[in-house]
Amino acid sequence: MGKILTIYGPLLLKAMGQTLLLALYGLFFACIIGMIVGIMSVLKNRLCRIFSLIFVNLIRGVPMIVLAYFIYFGVPYFWNTVLQIGGLTLSALEAGTICLALNCGAYMAEIIRAGIESVDIGQMEAARSLGLPYWRSMQRVILPQAIRTMIPSIINQFIITLKDTSILSVIGFPELVNTAKNVVSKTFMSFQTWAIVGIMYLIVILILQQAAKVIERRLKRGRRSL
Questions:
Q1: 167: which residues sit within 8 A by CB, 6+ positions away?
Q2: pLDDT under 70 in the chain at which residues?
Q3: pLDDT digit string (tens) for 101-126?
Q4: What local confidence, expressed as pLDDT, does residue 2 receive?
Q5: pLDDT of the residue at 195
Q6: Which domain holds residue 182?
Q7: Which CATH number belongs to the domain containing residue 154 in this structure?
């Protein structure tokens, strides 16, 4: 294990950084997708609700490895060969970000929907009675209250997304698992390498879990003081 840490430690740390970067990119765009789809799911417009329902069920119903292959190999093939437009290529980072954003976005949409619905309906009625338009009421009254309840779930979703990045080793992105596979192929030290990788994941995830608990405690204290 000491040999692997000495020789390949910097490489594994760099791969951990790539893993965190990919997870952050995915979560950033997932928040945008989740916010749009989540709000659509609580609108009175039936078409918006149907679209959000189809999106969430479709993405959550497809295994992430299939989604990764489809985006990385299928979309460029369809674009360049079937549509014959040509010129579309996706790097492993781009395909991985899209895959994570869609997958995580479907779950984020449900988190946001639940957060909005957790706010008492009287809040919206009170805002509308004061003359605020629907979207202004959503922006200034509902979402600020809903986000307070969403934050712990969003951090937990980031942890899940971080672990899901390991699946993207199948499309060649140099994240931690893919890098560990290369180390094992060179050193034939499977047990030691995967033990180090497991410990690295465990450290990062424990830090994030602790951060989620701290934030949740502060939010609870904030609610009591109101």
A1: 64, 65, 68
A2: 1, 220, 222-226
A3: 999 999 999 999 999 888 888 888 88
A4: 75
A5: 92
A6: 2-225
A7: 1.10.3720.10
For 149-189, how does the pLDDT look when each residue is reduced to its tens digit (9 = 90+)?
Answer: 888 888 888 888 898 888 888 888 888 899 999 988 888 88
Write the DSSP string, the chain.
-HHHHHHHHHHHHHHHHHHHHHHHHHHHHHHHHHHHHHHHTTSS-HHHHHHHHHHHHHHHHS-HHHHHHIIIIIHHHIIIIIS--------HHHHHHHHHHHHHHHHHHHHHHHHHHHS-HHHHHHHHHTT--HHHHIIIIIHHHHHHHHHHHHHHHHHHHHHHGGGGGGGT--SHHHHHHHHHHHH--HHHHHHHHHHHHHHHHHHHHHHHHHHHHHHHHHHHH-
> Which residue's entry shows tokens 């971080």?
162
Length of the chain: 226
Is the model's pTM score more than 0.90? no
Look at residues 212, 93, 97 and name the one whose alpha carbon lies nearest to residue 159: 212
Looking at the structure of the chain, the number of domains it has is: 1
67 close to 143: Cβ distance less than 8 angstroms: no
